[in-house]
Amino acid sequence: MKPLKIVAVSAGLGVPSSTRLLADRLAAATRQQVADEPGRAVEVRVVELRDLATDVAHNMVTGFPSPALAEAIEAVSESDGLIAVTPIFTASYSGLFKSFFDVIDNTALTGKPVLIAATGGTARHSLALEHALRPLFAYLRAVVVPTAVYAASEDWGTGGSGPGGALTERIDRAAGELAALILGRAATAPAAEPADDAFDVVPFAEQLAALRAN
């Protein structure tokens, strides 16, 4: 049984970054809940968009990804579950975050389980998850988990991010929903395509000749 692949995309710009920290927390929680399923191996990867910013810009202008960007796009496209985390700028996702998903084929996320999350300086921007991120991934035909996770600055410094804290509870709940979708999708994976000779296809010319004969 091949390992399930979880990819977290972080659009944080700073080093260190609260956006990357949230991505790591969500990835670890999801990995733990998927790995609790007997016989399931899990691979986790974090894609740092900060390191790909120039490549993304060049791709938007030229239409061709660099090797590093192409590899990141492939990882996201082939993942069994995606965690997408962005800082909130001007009440919406960052330009880098949006640009990255703009250069991905718009069918690559069809049916893919996605957990959306964001960070910001104040809790007032938490609704950006619902009016900006959720519609974006709905347009891409992804399956977005019900619980979105927003972490404001105060969530990291008031004990909310520790065991039993409010942020930790949201992370665990969202991770559980993503894990359930990943495992459910793996369990119902479509069977192999039928062989080419499974169907008897009559060429159009022969069908037309038959009609004329009648």
UniProtKB/TrEMBL annotation:
It holds the Pfam family FMN_red. It comes from the Bacteria. This is FMN reductase. Keywords: Flavoprotein, FMN, Oxidoreductase. It is an enzyme of class 1 (oxidoreductase). Residues 5-156 form the NADPH-dependent FMN reductase-like domain. One of its GO terms (molecular function) is oxidoreductase activity. SUPFAM superfamilies: Flavoproteins (SSF52218). Gene3D superfamilies: 3.40.50.360. InterPro entries: CE1759_FMN_reduct, Flavoprotein-like_sf, FMN_Rdtase-like_dom, NAD(P)H-dep_FMN_reductase. Its EC number is 1.5.1.-. PANTHER family: FMN REDUCTASE (NADPH).
